[in-house]
Amino acid sequence: MAMRMNFNALPGNGMTSARTRARMIERLKTQGITDPDVLTVMGEVPRHAFVDEAFAHKAYDDNSLPIGHNQTISQPYIVARMTELAIDVPQRERVLEIGTGCGYQTTVLAQFFKTVYSIERIGGLAKHARERLAALGVLNTRLRHGDGSRGLAESGPFDAIMLTAAAPVVPEALIAQLKPGGRLVFPVGTDAQELRVIEMTPDGPLESKLEKVRFVPLLPGVA
Ligand code: SAH
């Protein structure tokens, strides 16, 4: 985890949020998150800095929260779970996130991978995330405003690709952008959604179906 940052000096990142984050970590453990590095990073990244001030007091609750433009920051459990799945790869050089949103998951990934590429289709969110990450000093990210549904072939192949919006069907085209041993972590489905992983094994792509989830939809085009 060469890129691990120290967020302690940030304004508003005092004892209170340290304590609420510690409670969040205890909850994540009871929910089945076991990777010690994921628990450490979730305890360090200041989630309250990624939501509107009006919601900052709820930032460490076990909920998704609005981030504007009808979108949400995923609940801490799902960020931790998807991170655990994405970092279980042979190398952690390059990860692609599709759906930057507020940039929280981007920042968590940036503690594990050398470079995080992240694409967001809504211009206002992409701009805000760019400003927020710069202010926080999260420098190993390459953010883009665009439609990420076809991935980012020119910057790949990737050690991991994560969708943070639900694809209507399995995004087959992204599998070609994975390195050998690489992993695609994604929610799929419309009404009923499921978290899945496709791992690029020597015998070809291997799909695992995991738990039921609830994400905003992956949408085509830019806004
Ligand atoms: N990882 C985010 C979650 C944001 S919600 C966070 O931590 O805040 C999912 C995001 O995916 C939304 O911001 C939505 O606008 C974006 N999205 C949906 N379809 C997309 C697409 N085709 N390309 C890029 N981003 C997309």
UniProtKB/TrEMBL annotation:
Keyword S-adenosyl-L-methionine: yes
GO cellular component, one term: cytoplasm
HAMAP family: PIMT
Membrane-spanning ranges: none
Molecular function, one GO term: protein-L-isoaspartate (D-aspartate) O-methyltransferase activity
Record Gene3D superfamilies: Vaccinia Virus protein VP39
Active site residues according to the UniProt entry: 74
Catalytic activity entry: [protein]-L-isoaspartate + S-adenosyl-L-methionine = [protein]-L-isoaspartate alpha-methyl ester + S-adenosyl-L-homocysteine
Protein source organism: Amantichitinum ursilacus
InterPro entries noted in UniProt: PCMT (IPR000682), SAM-dependent_MTases_sf (IPR029063)
EC identifiers of the protein: 2.1.1.77
Keywords from the UniProt entry: Cytoplasm, Methyltransferase, S-adenosyl-L-methionine, Transferase
Protein's UniProt name: Protein-L-isoaspartate O-methyltransferase
GO-annotated biological processes: methylation; protein repair
Pfam families recorded: PCMT
Location of the protein in the cell: Cytoplasm
Family: Belongs to the methyltransferase superfamily. L-isoaspartyl/D-aspartyl protein methyltransferase family.
